[in-house]
Amino acid sequence: MQIIPPKSAIALVVKKGETLRVTDVEGEQIADLVCFNLEDHSEYVSMSHTRVNNQTLRITTGHDLFSNKLNVMFKITADTVGVHDILYSPCNRFVYEEIFKVGPQNGCLENLAAALEPYKISKAYIPDTFNIFMHTQVDENYNLSIHKPLSKKGDYIDLEAQMDCLVGITSCAEDVSDANGGKCTPMQVDVLPAK
After folding, report:
1. CA 128, CA 6: separation in Å to the nearest integer?
2. Residues whose CB is less than 8 angstroms from the CB of residue 26 and which lie 6 or more positions away in sequence, other chains included
3. What is the pLDDT of the chain when averaged over all its residues?
């Protein structure tokens, strides 16, 4: 078990057959997740391929996370919430400075880059994230909106690795909108053995 403190990120290895469980410790908290093929970092999770190959904007139990090379990286095997985002990029300094106008602040992009730096993955090569527990909607005019997460204390999602993966995951740093219920709290990560 690892606890990700608020507004930070970790990197870890998940081997084929193992299950990555991400648990919301206090409720209403997002975790931004990226992953790379452990042996070939040019293969990474792709939200565009995940959307197209699952034919939905709302993935949950039974859906797959696809790579940019169209291989399945993770299968969602359990999900107590069922509402996650695969449209938004990770929050970042540009968002805080230019959109929210709150001044310099590291976001999930910068935090993922720091966590993945030992693996020689720089900020420029971090793909769009699977935003676990992030509650977004698209209205009839195709406008995007962000709402409070529906996750409660102890809610979790299980992702079964289909290849050896390097994973970067955050406890989201966004404390300006309703994205994390107005405050940032920890996330818990467990790697469960292969069945």
Report:
1. 20
2. 153, 185, 186
3. 95
